[in-house]
Give the backbone structure.
Amino acid sequence: MDFDPDGGTFGARPELFAETFVQDCPPDIARGAADLLTRQTLAVTQQPVRAAAWRDVPTTYVVCTEDRGTPAAAQREFSRRADKVIEVNAGHHPFLSQPHTIAGIIANLL
């Protein structure tokens, strides 16, 4: 990640994006995803959460076991409050690398 405290933003480093976040995607998908990269405000990392839907609605967390951006161990910790946890052998963006798998997970939740 590239943090710019003076500008108040952060974002993925374009030169590392493919190998870190979409290593399991076909090259054309990885290029298309890289073309959509945009910086985000640092404020999202500093503001307290005022409301969390997971407290009131059933939740499912998809742990991406091959994620190079957010280690699976960290995801498992993040998922501890979810009602259901599903592990997928995928990188950071399984909706790009395995859209049918993710669509099936969603369909089974309905």
